[in-house]
Amino acid sequence: MTKAGLPITVVSWSSGKDCAFALHQLRAQNLGEVVGLLTTLNEENDRVAMHGVRRQLLQMQLDALGMPAEMVRLPNPCDDQTYRQRIGGCMDRLRARGVQQVAFGDLFLEDIRRYREDQMQGSGIAPVFPLWQRDTGQLARDMIASGLRAVVTCVDRRVLPAGFAGRWYDDAFLEELPSGVDPCGENGEFHTLVTAGPMFAQPIAVRVGRQVCRGDFVFADVLPARA
Fold first, then answer.
1. Which residues touch 92 (CB under 8 Å, ≥6 apart)?
2. What superfamily in CATH does domain 8-128 come from?
3. CA nearest neighbour of 206 among 175, 167, 177
4. pTM of the prediction?
């Protein structure tokens, strides 16, 4: 425990809105003393896995948060055994630093939660879920009302038109989502990059580059504004 009696916490960081808001809730509700982040990077292209976010932007987020990150590099594709081995090694390092819990931004998918819990069983570190089972329509509005700003970096074109990639996550975006698409994209319909919010000391400036299609997914290549 820290001096304040709060468990020492690391946030599983995808660069997107859910993990960012989970960090905000941890602080607002005194659920843990956040000392850093845990993120995974694709070895092939040096980007945040699935969200397709450049490492340079990740570093800008870390600077705005004033936090270090434990970065786990993963091959692409990554089999489950390799994933467990590398994440397990990361858990060993975190435990040696006194970390007591890892917070995830998962919302309602029971299988994902069970996987996290199974993965961390015996690690000596507890998984926690600050946003678990909150109504995602209200949660989306709460995020935007808090001042959180995020750009959509990836969409699944099986459920969303490609034009949604590169848009800002705002009220207009929510209003135009097709029926059946979760407002927070919890089923993998879209992913985001947070650029501002109550968890950041200052916003990060970005611009949206070209779209790239990879299989069923369309990625918007987000760049630092100064690039």
1. 123
2. HUPs (3.40.50.620)
3. 167
4. 0.94
